[in-house]
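hiii so um. not sure if this is the right channel but i have a protein structure encoded as tokens and i wanna go backwards to a sequence. like what aa goes where. can anyone help
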């Protein structure tokens, strides 16, 4: 079920009403049924994969905890079962065709007369998110960070909780699971805060992201037909499209959970104001970047290893992160590019320090930070070309064409949608700029009630009159 659909407009109030009207002991069952119904609107048979992942990790959790007195071999076997099941599901449904197609090309080049068959299957919705979420639970139990959850129904709810089921944030069991055992009474102020956050999420998705998508698709759908400024504009629009699309989803998810009394982690923190690539990843898709840090980078040794191994660890994490986003070489290239950015920052640290001193930037911290943010943004922008392009060859064409001087008179600069799109990008930058100094929610909360509610009504009617109600899926649904 899409958040930006009529079904969800009906579904969510019914779920909230049922949740608060039911006695506390039945609420987990109500939310679990609602979560499975939410998922099955997309595809009923694929709910079996969700059930399988839940069952395997529930069983694994009971057998990997060091406090349960299990033998070391038994604990490792059940940990391997969890890893094999979750990564196996991902491997078959998300990556099998990608690797088989590449292997077939290698076999053909080598003259081997054998073709690995293609699997005609749909990519299950949210598979990358819920498999990583359940894996983190098993790993945390194995490490002794938490006790295994013995209530199968509550554990199933942790895996399938509908606000963040299909596109995150990827919640840790240590944070979300205990909340299902708390009796949340209806709180008017908290519910209002949740609905306001949902409103802002819908505004980002329906008014901004889906409007920018038109111009992005126009250029990236015909990479050889556009040069110069249109390619640069479309790439900038994609940067804000993917941000508003994914941050919008996250805000709706966090807001929906908040209405019912649940706290879900922040997933974005003004990423385009980052002063470095490392800072960007502390602000962008926080739940995923911290997942890779805790469950891949640190187990590989992090930076507590010889320098060359540290470089290897960084590059591996970013390449795997790219592959997590999709079974395409464009995503691998996107991840590898960010890994190279990180290595480049390490290798040029002394050089950049000397340049800052020679340009007297140390005495002007505001100017220094502005220049760092501009450079970081354009490095990220360059990587978005790989992310959005359909193939690496098309990414190369777009990058080459972007460097060509061409105003692009065919591009619809004077259209109403373009003017509104520019205004929306400016609005996001303004909001994020203000948030660097003030917490806007607190500022708005301090306004007189008539002014405050007039502002919320204004946002609502902007969604109604400027929104694109075409049922466009959230970008991260494909991952």
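sure thing!! here u go:
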């Amino acid at each position: 079920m899409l958040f930006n659909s009529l079904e969800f407009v009906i579904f969510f109030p019914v779920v909230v009403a049922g949740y608060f009207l039911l006695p506390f002991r039945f609420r987990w069952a109500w939310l679990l049924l609602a979560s499975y119904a939410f998922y099955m609107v997309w595809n009923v048979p694929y709910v079996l994969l969700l059930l399988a992942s839940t069952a395997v990790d529930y069983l694994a959790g009971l057998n990997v905890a060091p406090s349960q007195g299990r033998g070391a071999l038994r604990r490792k076997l059940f940990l391997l079962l969890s890893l094999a099941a979750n990564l196996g599901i991902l491997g078959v449904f998300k990556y099998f065709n990608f690797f088989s197609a590449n292997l077939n090309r290698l076999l053909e080049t080598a003259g081997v007369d054998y073709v690995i068959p293609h699997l005609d299957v749909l990519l299950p919705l949210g598979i990358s998110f819920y498999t990583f979420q359940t894996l983190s639970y098993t790993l945390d139990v194995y490490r002794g960070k938490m006790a295994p959850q013995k209530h199968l129904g509550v554990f199933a709810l942790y895996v399938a909780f509908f606000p963040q089921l299909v596109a995150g944030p990827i919640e840790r069991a240590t944070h979300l699971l205990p909340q299902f055992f708390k009796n949340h009474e209806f709180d008017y102020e908290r519910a209002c805060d949740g609905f306001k956050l949902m409103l802002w999420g819908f505004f980002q998705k329906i008014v901004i992201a889906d409007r920018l998508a038109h111009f992005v698709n126009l250029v990236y759908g015909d990479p050889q037909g556009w040069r110069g400024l249109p390619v640069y504009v479309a790439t900038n629009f994609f940067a804000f499209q993917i941000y508003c699309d994914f941050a919008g989803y996250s805000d709706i998810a966090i807001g929906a959970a908040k209405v019912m009394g649940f706290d879900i982690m922040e997933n974005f923190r003004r990423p385009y104001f980052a002063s470095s690539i490392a800072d960007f990843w502390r602000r962008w898709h926080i739940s995923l970047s911290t997942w890779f840090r805790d469950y891949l980078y640190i187990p590989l040794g992090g930076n507590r290893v010889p320098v060359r191994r540290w470089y290897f660890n960084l590059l591996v994490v970013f390449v795997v992160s790219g592959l997590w986003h999709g079974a395409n070489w464009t995503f691998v290239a996107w991840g590898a590019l960010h890994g190279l950015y990180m290595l480049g920052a390490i290798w040029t640290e002394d050089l950049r320090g000397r340049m800052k001193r020679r340009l007297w930037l140390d005495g002007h911290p505001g100017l220094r930070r502005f220049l760092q943010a501009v450079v970081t943004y354009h490095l990220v922008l360059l990587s978005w070309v790989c992310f959005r392009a359909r193939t690496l060859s098309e990414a190369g064409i777009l990058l080459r064409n972007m460097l060509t001087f061409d105003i692009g008179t065919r591009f619809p600069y004077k259209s109403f949608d373009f003017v509104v799109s520019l205004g929306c990008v400016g609005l996001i930058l303004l909001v994020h700029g203000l948030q660097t100094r003030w917490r806007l929610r607190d500022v708005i909360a301090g306004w007189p009630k008539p002014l405050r509610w007039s502002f919320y009504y204004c946002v609502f009617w902007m969604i109604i009159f400027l929104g694109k109600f075409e049922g466009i899926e959230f970008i991260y649904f494909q991952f």
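oh and The chain has a mean pLDDT of 91.
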